[in-house]
Prior knowledge:
The chain is an alpha/beta fold. It has three domains: about 15-200, Rossmann fold, CATH 3.40.50.1380; about 240-360, 3-Layer(aba) Sandwich (Cytidine Deaminase, domain 2), CATH 3.40.140; about 370-510, 3-Layer(aba) Sandwich (Cytidine Deaminase, domain 2), CATH 3.40.140.20. The chain has helices at about 25-35, 45-55, 60-65, 80-85, 95-100, 115-120, 125-130, 135-145, 160-170, 175-200, 255-270, 295-300, 305-310, 320-325, 340-350, 405-415, 440-455, 470-475, 495-505, and strands at about 15-20, 40-45, 60, 105-110, 150-155, 215-220, 230-235, 245-250, 275-280, 285-290, 310-315, 335, 355-360, 370-375, 375-380, 395, 425-430, 430-435, 460-465, 485, 505-510. The longest helix is centred in the middle third of the chain and has 26 residues, at about 175-200.
Amino acid sequence: MINNPSLNKEPVRVGRALISVFDKTGLLDLAQGLGEFDVEIMSTGGTARALREAGLSVTDVSDYTNFPEIMDGRVKTINPLVEGGILGLRDQHEDDAINNKIDWIDLVVCNLYPFSKTISKEECDLALALENVDIGGPTMIRSAAKNLGWVTVLVDPNDYSTIQDEIKETGQISFDTRKCLSAKAFGHTAQYDTIIHNYVKDDELSQDLSLTFNKYSDMRYGENPHQAASSYVVPGNNEPNVLNATIHQGKKLSYNNIMDADGALACVREFDETACVVVKHANPCGVAIGDDILDVYERAFNADSLSAFGGIIAFNRRCTKEVAESITGVFVEIVLAPSFDPEALKIFKKKKNLRVLEIGEFERREKRIEVRNIDGGILVQDTDTKILTRNDLTVVTKKQPSDQDVRTALFTWKVLRHAKSNGILIAKDGTTVGLGAGQVSRVDAVHMALKKGGENVKGGVLASDAFFPFRDSIDTIKDSGIGTIMQPGGSIRDQEIIDACNEHGFAMVFTNTRCFKH
């Protein structure tokens, strides 16, 4: 440890560069530019070969260290001559450098094996993943980033021109530039280690949780115009989702657009049957399943056409010309689907502000973690991907639900868990009828669902995302014509609720599972 550390903030000249990159984007232009300023270039392996084949002068690191690359290239830059050349403080360690024949290295250009790309491959196992963990690269990067007083580090090809322009203009690299690139380098290795950490550990909710993302885009604003916002993606993630979608047309996606589109996609992924989901302000205001996609769309939209105005429409099947023609007759913000008929895309062009997102083929959601910020920390949980079946339902009333009611109940549950709690949803014939969501009391949610559904609730199934605390909700629907009620159960007043159902002639089933969504 240096007793009185100091930090050089003066511009520094680049006399020697060490270049070792996996991503060779812009490599030759950078090396040629450095050569024009008489910068000596050292390199390793494939990078050295690429430079030499381009006719550039390059010194192999193994020739400099007099130590060959060994163990299939696992050991090549971990050497005192390399690390000393990067880490040495020019105003304090010159004697050590001379005595040990260490040459100063003023610029380190390095990026790492694409670990995230490796682990995204189906055939990847732990052995292959570990083989693609870069050791020498992060060591060089962190060494250069630490010694920012004297050394410049480049991890992003997009920064190559900045360095070249600065050297061309002044012959040196400023402290501000070195500091900025140092921060970027530490972020680069931190993200790299985080991806490895999350892959190797067995428990997602382990004692130490690390998260890392890459910026996808800046946004005009967040939920409201006075809030700044950006979107970020998981490094290496190429799964079908909103951020990876092909955007065929329309305005740039806003914060609220992405939130609602993601919610619509999550809901429509619940279904194996042809399905359409209409979302407004994060709630599924209309959902339908069936065989014909045009019929499914029309039922989903008309389930609550007032709320669907300006909403998001999601399909789990290819969007056809006929569906596109129907959609252009109304105002919606986004249409998303796995794919689109070419004729459908032509029709959508008539509405230039409509966003059209091609997600790619997708399946049911897989279990993963959800993260929410709170002051001083975060909350983390598994996603709710539990699938209810007929075997999970317990009939608790004298009246038995029909087979059709059971099928409707299971459909309703798939939708309800995507609505804000307190949530009540009424459905029938594979279509939602009325939604009461985000209410502070359960009976209020019941009133809202009944009001939304109107006369259409007759013969429907009503589902509650949590137990009924009092019988007031049951009494509220006694004359509605609803036949079956589904709820988790678990209240101290369950028997009171069951008695009310028997009194009014309802069938009731318990799921023994809650689906709150806050």
